[in-house]
Write a structure and sequence with these properties.
Length: 376
C-alpha cells in the first residue's frame, strides 16, 4: 500500500485562542485539530487576525501568523482581516491544503480566487443572512451566495449546511464532519448543583441572551435555581443594564471570562445549560456541556439539528413563553437526571481523534482528485 505523504496545511481562521477580544469555539477547534494533525506528522500553519498584544508564534506545534489591524475594536479588525487576507493567500507557496474558516459577517472570503492551492471551506460562520438582519445589511446574504460558487470542496457540520451549499453550488464536493470534544469534559464530576448556566460570548444578537433574560424573568419566582452568566464580549454593559431593568439582580449573576479550571468547576456545579442562541454553526460549547452531563434548553435552530431530542429541550424559535416553560420543565430534578445520562452517552461519539481522522481522509481525497484532474 502506497504511503501517504505528510502534508503542509494552512488554516485561515480569523480567531486565535489567545485573542482577548474573542478566543471563541472555532479558535479552540483549530487548536484541537491542528495539534493532532501535527502529532500525525503534518505541518500546520494558522493565519489569524492581529489583536492587542498578539505575537506570531509556534504553539502545540502549530505556527501562528497574524495579519490585519490589531485594534481593540473587533468589528474593525474583522473588516481589515477580510480585506488583507487575499494578499496573504497569494503569498502561500509551500502549502498542500488551505482550510478557510468561513468568517462573519459575509461567510465566504473568496480564497479560491487568489490561489491554485486546493481550498476547503469549513462552515464555521455560515449565517450571512442572520448577520444581515442584525446589522441591517441585506447585501451580506448576496455576497455569501455569490462567494459559494468559487469553492469546490466543503466540510459542513450538518445536513442543513449541505443543502444550503448544494442549492448555490450543485457541483460542490462535501464531507460532513462535526466538531469534537475533549476527554476532560467526560471526567467532570457533577457536584452539588447550584444554578442554571449560560456560558458563551456576550453577544446579544447571536447568543440570544436577551431572550434568556426575558424568559427567566417570567418564571423567576417558580424556578429553584439562580442563573449564572459566564463569559465576556461586546454586550457586557447592555446585559448588566437589562438584568437591572428586569429586576433580576438578586437572581442573575455575571462571573466574567470562564476558561480552564474555572470552566470545569462551573460546569460541575450547573444543573443544566441555557442555550438561547438565535443562530450557530456547530456550537462547540454545546457539545462540551453534553459531555459534562449537562442537558441544554435551547431554541430549535439548524445549528443544533445534530443534537438528539433526549439531550436537549427545544422551544420554537424564538418563542419566549415556550422557552420559559421549558426552563421550568428542566427544573424538575428527575427529568434532568435522565437527560444528563443521555447527554454523556450521546457525546461519546464526538471525539477529536475521530474528527481529525476524517479531516485527514478528506485532505487526501481532495489531493487525489486534484492530481487526477491535472493528469487529464
Amino acid at each position: 500500500m502506497k504511503t501517504k505523504k505528510k502534508l503542509s496545511i494552512t488554516f485561515l481562521d480569523f480567531d486565535d485562542i489567545k485573542n482577548p477580544l474573542l478566543g471563541a469555539g472555532q479558535a479552540r477547534a483549530t487548536v484541537e485539530v491542528g495539534k493532532r494533525l501535527v502529532n500525525k506528522g503534518h505541518s500546520v500553519n494558522v493565519i489569524s487576525s492581529r489583536y492587542p498584544g498578539y505575537k506570531d508564534r509556534i504553539e502545540n506545534g502549530i505556527e501562528y501568523k497574524h495579519i490585519g489591524l490589531g485594534s481593540r475594536n473587533i468589528k474593525l479588525n474583522n473588516i481589515i482581516y477580510i480585506l488583507t487576507l487575499p494578499l496573504a493567500v497569494r503569498k502561500l507557496k509551500n502549502t498542500d491544503i488551505i482550510i478557510e474558516c468561513f468568517t462573519a459577517p459575509i461567510s465566504t472570503l473568496f480564497s479560491p480566487i487568489f490561489t491554485k492551492i486546493p481550498v476547503i471551506a469549513l462552515t464555521t460562520s455560515f449565517e450571512a443572512e442572520m448577520f444581515g438582519e442584525v446589522y441591517h445589511l441585506p447585501f451580506l446574504k448576496l455576497i455569501e451566495k455569490f462567494g459559494l460558487r468559487f469553492y469546490k470542496y466543503f466540510m459542513p457540520y450538518t445536513d442543513h449546511y449541505v443543502r444550503k451549499i448544494k442549492s448555490n453550488n450543485p457541483k460542490a464536493i462535501v464531507k460532513i464532519i462535526p466538531e469534537g470534544v475533549g476527554k476532560e469534559f467526560f471526567a467532570i464530576k457533577r457536584r452539588s448543583l447550584k444554578y442554571i448556566l449560560f456560558l458563551g460570548r456576550l453577544d446579544i444578537g447571536q447568543k440570544g441572551i436577551d431572550l434568556l433574560l426575558e424568559a427567566y424573568a417570567r418564571i423567576q419566582s417558580k424556578v429553584n435555581y439562580p442563573l449564572i452568566i459566564a463569559g465576556n464580549g461586546p454586550d457586557e454593559t447592555r446585559i448588566k443594564e437589562m438584568i437591572h431593568a428586569l429586576k433580576l439582580s438578586e437572581r442573575v449573576k455575571m462571573i466574567g471570562a470562564t476558561f480552564g479550571k474555572k470552566k470545569n468547576r462551573v460546569l460541575s456545579e450547573a444543573f443544566f445549560v441555557a442555550f438561547p442562541s438565535r443562530h450557530e454553526g456547530f456550537p462547540l460549547f454545546s457539545l462540551e456541556a453534553l459531555a459534562a452531563g449537562l442537558p441544554l434548553v435551547a431554541f430549535d435552530i439548524p445549528g443544533l439539528s445534530w443534537a438528539k431530542q433526549d439531550t436537549v429541550l427545544k422551544a420554537k424559535p424564538f418563542d419566549i413563553n415556550q422557552y420559559s416553560s421549558l426552563l421550568l420543565v428542566a427544573n424538575k430534578n428527575n427529568e434532568i437526571k435522565k437527560m444528563s445520562q443521555n447527554a454523556r452517552k450521546f457525546a461519546k461519539q464526538f471525539t477529536w481523534e475521530n474528527v481529525v481522522n476524517q479531516f485527514e481522509s478528506f485532505f487526501y481525497e481532495v489531493l487525489d482528485r486534484e492530481e487526477k484532474k491535472h493528469e487529464n
